[in-house]
Design a protein that fits this description.
The protein is 21% helix and 29% strand. It is an alpha+beta fold. It starts with 20 loop residues before the first helix and ends with a helix.
Length: 175
Amino acid sequence: MPHLSSVRFWDSFRLRSPIDPPLQVLKLNFLTHHSISSLRKGAEVVEFKAIIADPKSGKSYPKDVSGHHANSLIGKKIGEEVDGIFVDLPGYKLVITGGSDRDGVPMRKDMPGPRRRPMLVTKGVGFHPKDKGVRKRRNLRGNTISPDIIQLNMRIVAHGPKPIKDSLKAKEGDK
């Protein structure tokens, strides 16, 4: 069996004879492990655009979330209540109501996990039929926030001591 360093990169994807399957498995495991470990080194910076809806006033406010605040939102699910400190609104309580990824694929509450999957839908998030009884297969995201999510939708459940306009405008003026 040749040494792993002597094998060229594209040889790992070439089919081998049935006599030598362990070599193929060994090389593919090495490549998979190598690519996963490079992602763990923090090469990816997570950033969300949070759209915060205020049911009192009927307005919504955009806010960019990045850094450790964005990392702490990963793994949360639709319907969970989070502290407003994640979006620079101390004292506020927010509920995650949805989101979408970079391609505009929406998150769906009844679909577990963070992945994008095709789902046969009749109504609801991601599909609004004009005729009765129409079903369609649509790509939808699960209900868990992952680094692939770009936009997060949130609703205020408990207001803080300062009005939301003042809190967000003071932060924008600093930039």
